[in-house]
Predict the 3D structure of the following.
Amino acid sequence: MKAQRNSITKEMEPGKNSNSHELGGERRAIAALEMVVQKSQTVYHENMKMKCVSLICALSLLATLAQANDKPGPLAVTGDLLVIRPLCLAVTIFGAAVFVVALPVAAISKSVKPTADALVVKPAHATFTRQLGDLEALENEFEGSSD
């Protein structure tokens, strides 16, 4: 893109091209396009920041509400189903991929089972066998309190 811009800039130098008036318009169009792209990138990043902050706030609220009662409420169950479980599934998949990469080292050090437990079994348990809405069990799962 930069090389293309430089070649257009060279063509736009006065006296070197008979169409310098038309090329000036192209220069303005390219500058306007670059401004639009920069602005859209800024807006995209701001939107992503806002979404991340909103997600963190929602997760904090869900965790607080779930710990307030022994029996999970509808908000905790819904949040667990729509937010927490998909995140746990993603962690399980990522952990499995990391486990495959770490397997040779774990085999040499004879620590395959602890590595598998930490990277695959605990996230899978949190995803598939934990009671729906029980976020306290989720905390205990990753703290190592419940085995």
